[in-house]
Each structure stands twice: as C-alpha cells, then as structure tokens.
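User: I would dearly like some help making sense of a protein record. I have put the entry right below:
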Amino acid sequence: MFPGDASVLIVGAGPVGMVLALELARLRVPALLVDAEAATRAYPKGNTHNARTMEHYRRLGLAGRVRAVGLPADHPTDVAYFTRLSGHELARLPMPSTAGKLAAVREADDFAQVIEPIHRANQMYVEKVLADACERSPLISVCRGWRAEEFTQHEGGVNLTVRPDGGGRWEEDAGGTDPATGTGGRPVTVRGAFLVGCDGGSSRIRKQLGIRYAGEGPLGTSLFGGPMVSAHLRIPGLRAHLAGREFWQGWSVNRDVVTDLITLDGRDEYMTHSALGSNTDSAQLAAVVARALACDVDVEVLTMAPWTAGRALVADKFASGRVFLCGDSVHLFTPTGGLGMNTGVDDAANLAWKLAAVLQGWGGPGLLASYEAERHPVAVRNTTAARALARSVQSVQVGANIEEPGPAGDAERRRVGALLSQMGEEFASVGIQLGARYDGSPVVLGDGTQAPPDRPDVYEPSATPGGRLPHLRLPDGSSVFDRLGHGFTLLRTGKPGRVDADIEALRRQASATGVPLRVVSVGHDDAAGFYGAPLLLVRPDQHVAWRGARVDDPARILATVTGNAGESPGLTLQSAG
C-alpha cells in the first residue's frame, strides 16, 4: 500500500537517501523514501566506507552491522600490483585487516582520532543493512518500484507525483491494480514540507530545478579517465591461486592488459573496472579478466554496468526553495580515493538536523540556507582532491620485457615496482575524511583562532569552531561521541562550579526557545587543554558551533547557531514545473 504524505519526501533510496531518512527518524521526523528500483542494487559500486562515514553509522547504531558485511575481519586490505595475478608481484601497499584496525583503536591513547576505521564493504552489501534499518523504523516509509515525476512547490510545502515503475506492488495484482490503493498504475501525488533529491548523477529533481554541474570532465586517460564498465564477477577457483598473496585490490600491470580486481566477500565474488567501452559484452569482459589472471579458473560475469570516470563536477546550487539535493545529484567524482558516496553521506548528516530543526520550530530562516553555504565548499574540496589523486596505474610506463625471465626482466619489474610503491597517496586521505570544516558559516560562531592547514593525508585535531569535534576517550572508556545528544550538546571540559552559572543561563535560553540541549561534563583531566576552552557547543552533526570561557550572551549564541540571527534569505519559495 502506498503510504502517502510525510514531513520529508526523499527521492532515491541509495545509501545517501537511506542515511538521510535514518538521520531524520533519529530526530523524530517522518520521511518517505521513493525509488524506481524494486529492490536494493544487485551490482557493485563503491567499496569504501571511510572513517567519517563509519562515525555516522555509529551514531545511527549501525557500525557493527556494516562491519559484519564485506571483507571478513581477518582478510588483508592490501593493494597489490602484479604482472598478472598469477605472475610476479611488483609492489604491495600493506594495510591492516578490519580486526587489526579495530585492535589498534582499542590500544590507542585517549586522543586518537580514528575511532571507526575505514571499512571495505561493497555498497550493494551495505545498502541491504541500511534498507533493513529503514524498513524497521516506524518513521520511515519505503516505496520501491515507484518513479518520481514532477513536483511543485508552494508556501506550505511540496507536492510530488510518483508512478509505479516496474516491480511496484501494484503490478502484483493480476488485473494490474494495487488492491490497497487502486492506482492501477496511475500516478499518485504525495505531499511533504520538504523534498530532497538523492537520485544520482542524472537527477530528475536537479534537472527540473534547472541546476547545472560545473567543474572538470573526464581526465581523458584510458583507465579511470573516461567511459568505463564495472562488473560483478564470480571466480570460484581464484583463492587457491592467491594463497599467501591475498589482497583487497589487485592490479594486473603489463603491456597486454592493465586492470584491477577488487575482493568483495573474501570468497569468490569480485569486482573489476574496464575501459573497454559501453558496447562490451560479458564474454569480452570475461576474456580480458582471464588474461589479467593468467591462470586456469572460470570467470563468470554476474552483472555489468557502464559509467564515466575522471570527473570533478559540483552543482552550482544545492537547493531551491523547499527542494534540496544530496549526494551524486550535486557532486560527481572520479572514484580515486573512494570519496563520492562518503561525501554524500556527510551531506545527509548536515541537512537532516537542519530540516528537523525547522520542522520542529526551533530552526530559524537562515538554517536551511547554511546547507549550501557549508557543503558546497566541501564538495569542491573533495572532488578536486579525488581528481588530484587520480594518477592512473597506466601512467606508469611498462617495458616490453616486464614479464620475461632473467636479469633484464627482473630489473624492469624492480623499476616498475618502485614507481607503483609510491601510489599509496591515494589511500592516505585521513585529512580529507575527518577534516571537512565549515569556517565562515553563518551558523558557526568563530572565536578568532586559526584552524590547522587542510592536508589530505593528515588530520590535526582542532576544536576551532566549524570543524568536527575532536574525539576524546573518556575515563570510563567510552567515546565522547556516544555522550552527545540528538540536539545540541554543551560540553563542560573543566571542573564543576566555575562555569555553572553560564551553563544554567544557556540551558534556560534553550528551554525558552525550544532548542534541544544536553549538558555533558567531560571529566577528563586534559580535556580543557585539548579542546582549548572550558565550554564547547556541539551541533547534532558533531561539528563545533561555538566555544568559549564564558556565555556572555546566550540569546545571541543560540540564535546564531540555529539560524535565527540577523538578516537571512531564508526559504525562497517558488513554483517548479
């Protein structure tokens, strides 16, 4: 049965749309998810859930379930380069298994910043985890097999037209009519206060708004620089040939074929990327993979799909009126560095609490406008970084004798291996993962201090307002992140008594204006020095909104961080369609 209206209508039930719905549900906001696909995807896409995304999953109570899918906990996550996967190993970038990474977290000191290490699990596996969580939530209605069509905006909200699109429940009736709705395949209009397009690079929502991408197109290189084909493979006999040389991503590098193979489940499922073009059939692709393997195994192509790599595109606007855009609908990446889906999840975390605040009456007219102000610079930063990292393995010149036995072949393999060993920069991106900042945001109160330099490979923790709250392990062994409230959290880093009157003043102001506020005493001897102030105000998305020694003007502080201060464009309501 089609469930009808909701506070927030979300088009696109991929990982970004589902995380947005789950974040809204956590904040007690009903959401309707609409997706033309009848089920979660059955073909592989992104394979990386970075440290920041895993923190978002942790906040939703899903980090453990996500880690239970994808690579087994003890499987190596190395990137390895071979002449062919059964041939000479040229170079290896060693990386710890999930079990090793989690052990390092347990053994780290109180100030360690990576508390939810990066996890290698294909998007198609994780989507099932997210879909199950959405289905279980009483505040989320999931409508798969329904295509979003036109929408209109008005002062009170958004009307969205949806139509069954193959696989929808209306088709299950022999007469072509859903007995619960009686739609018979006809369109249905649903209503919400807001609409969010999470519907990918060809977003229908973005196109109806007339919003365009800007940036740089494909790189023009033969691999990860233009038209590509991704394929889901089953290779049952490969593990025996890889004994002692297992990897997460393995490359075949020779004069005949350069391609990758990504381990999906640690057993017999793999993913590969090919630059053969969109007209490639499964037999051609299987033959290429077989040449890259050069061993006696059967290669079964389960699914394959075309796409374009090497882009760094960001939409010129992230919203219009009551309609917002998240994920690929506002930014398109080259896959290098695994930043695309992760940037979209961070979009969702930023937008969800702002929608909830406005719907619940404590968010002001400037709050929703801050979504674009904060996320557009991050999208430019991340797409640019991914493109800079896109140094294709094909840029390494390979000699004709790389596969030959003897001294000349050995020398060529050493030369190429030395070059490939330098490609670890792609995987050293903790600064990109944890270092996104909202400096200059209209809903962040700066304190005059300078944040550390933005470096892709280094994250230097800083509580300067605008950035992610630096992590701190508390004396009882818990994470400060797990103590944060669903709304704003005021952290007291010093001893009780010194700022109690200020805390009480802010608490009274929050109560009077309906702003949800939790006060948390950190209770760590070094917290005040680490955070740089006795008081920090943390947003629902874990970014620092304000810090200081005194709450001199609680009304001004809360008005600013909730979008209720000064002149603001607010919602520019308009008709679309």
Notes: The longest strand covers residues 146-154. Residues 8-70+121-214+312-386 form a domain with the FAD/NAD(P)-binding domain fold (CATH 3.50.50.60). Residues 167-183, 568-577 have pLDDT under 50 and may be disordered.
